Amino acid sequence: MYIMVNNNNYCVNCVFIYLFIYLFIYLSIKLNGFLIVNKDMTELPVVTQPGLGVTTTTVTTITQTGGDWSTGLFDFCSDKTVCLVGTMCPACLELNLSHQYGECLCLPLLPGSTFALRVGIREKYKIRGSVCEDWTAVYCCWPFAVCQMVRELKTRIKSQIFQVSTAIESS
Questions:
Q1: Residues 6+ apart with CB under 8 A from 110
Q2: Which residues are bridge partners to 4 per DSSP?
Q3: Would you say residue 58 has pLDDT above 50?
Q4: What is the pTM of this model?
Q5: Dmax (CA) of the chain
Q6: Which of 4, 7, 74, 155 is least surrounded by CB atoms within 10 angstroms?
Q7: Over the stretch 24-47, which tens digit does the pLDDT of each residue have?
Q8: Residues with Cβ within 8 Å of residue 157, at least 6 apart in sequence
Q9: Which residue spans traverse the membrane (predicted)?
Q10: Residue-by-residue DSSP string for 7-24
Q11: How far apart are CA 46 and CA 65, in angstroms?
């Protein structure tokens, strides 16, 4: 089978062969600049991205400072309102505590909720102590522990203390 191109007769098979060779050469030249292939014919991973020279990265870490409880377990008279409500109705004070902490008002009705709140407050504000100390405070001195947690939340919310540290890395 022959086709007419510019008054010349060409074999269709020859045209397709020439077209295939041309495309192969063209694509190999174009793609060779984009592929990085080592001697084993495997692609190398990109380890670093090209940059404009020296790059600087600033890492800022903000951590809330810890310490001890702002008031002691038996300093219940340091805040007169908390002392009065804690003496008359410690369950009402615990409802207020769970609300201030951002939990449901029904939380104090669950067993172990005061203990969970105390551990949560200690962990959130990075207060020194242990789970054993929290358990002892809650189960042996429940009204005092609730008063202490309310006072702590009042103190920490008023004056949140943060420690900011910045590190600069250059490459």
A1: none
A2: 9
A3: yes
A4: 0.56
A5: 112
A6: 7
A7: 666 666 555 544 444 555 566 667
A8: 100
A9: 15-37
A10: TEEEEHHHHHHHHHHHHH
A11: 40
Which has more confidence, 123 or 165? 123
pLDDT at 18 over 80: no
Locus of tokens 């340091």: 78
Question: In sequence order, what are the residues at sequence separation of 6 or more whose Cβ sits closer than 8 angstroms to the Cβ of residue 101?
Answer: 117, 120, 121, 153
pLDDT the model gives residue 38: 47
pLDDT tens-place string over residues 101-139: 888 888 888 899 999 999 999 998 889 899 999 999 999
Number of neighbours of residue 106 by Cβ within 10 angstroms: 10
Cβ-contact 99, 108 below 8 angstroms: no
- The secondary structure of 27-95 as a DSSP string is HHHHHHTT--B-TTS-BPPP-S---SS--EEEEEEEEE--BS-SS-TT-GGGSHHHHHHHHH-HHHHHH
Q: How far apart are CA 70 and CA 153, in angstroms?
A: 10
- Using alpha carbons only, give the angle 93, 94, 100 rounded to the nearest 5 degrees: 90
Report which residue type is found at 116. A
Dihedral angle sign, alpha carbons of residues 109, 110, 114, 119:
negative
